[in-house]
User: Fold this.
Amino acid sequence: MVSLIVTLLLRPLAGANSLLLAIGRQVAWLALALMVLVILAQVFFRYVLNNALAWPDEAARFLMLWMTALMAPSAMRWGGFVSIDMLPSALGRVASRVLTLVLLFMALAVLLIAIQHGYKHTFGFGGRFNSSSLRIPFDWFGGEVVRVKLRYMYASLLVCVILLISVTIELILRSLVLLFKPEAELPATGAPARQLETD
Assistant:
């Protein structure tokens, strides 16, 4: 049964997560770089030219939300969130794995509720409004200025929750496998420094 879980469920899910999270991390680095440039531009215009721009604050917030949304799933997968692990460390192997599973199922329940909020914010009433300052200048080409909808900012929450759900399911499968077969060989998570406790 353990090998069946690994072969049919865990390996494809881990592979898909590895690909999606790697793409997300690259986009997040780009968002971070753009955010720094936008903030530096605002500092220059405000304090050197004494002429603050209207859009950099909201643009930086937009980029920060997307950067966080695309990095959080990788942090969760690699065990990078702040946690207190004294209790699992004090318990035996089986009790520690069971506690980990309970916590992961609780996290999954919260994320399933959060996905509804993310969907409502993105596609519901709030997402229909325009940003107060972000505009796409199509008037360069003779058209009108297009104001950016807030749904593109709110979509970061929805994407983040979907990726976190996928990662949580992967972590649940990993914990189940290790509960019954501690020596099982699991797919790599691609963590840069250290692997998860469940690996």
Notes: The radius of gyration is 21 Å. Strands lie at 130-137, 145-149. The longest helix spans residues 2-48.
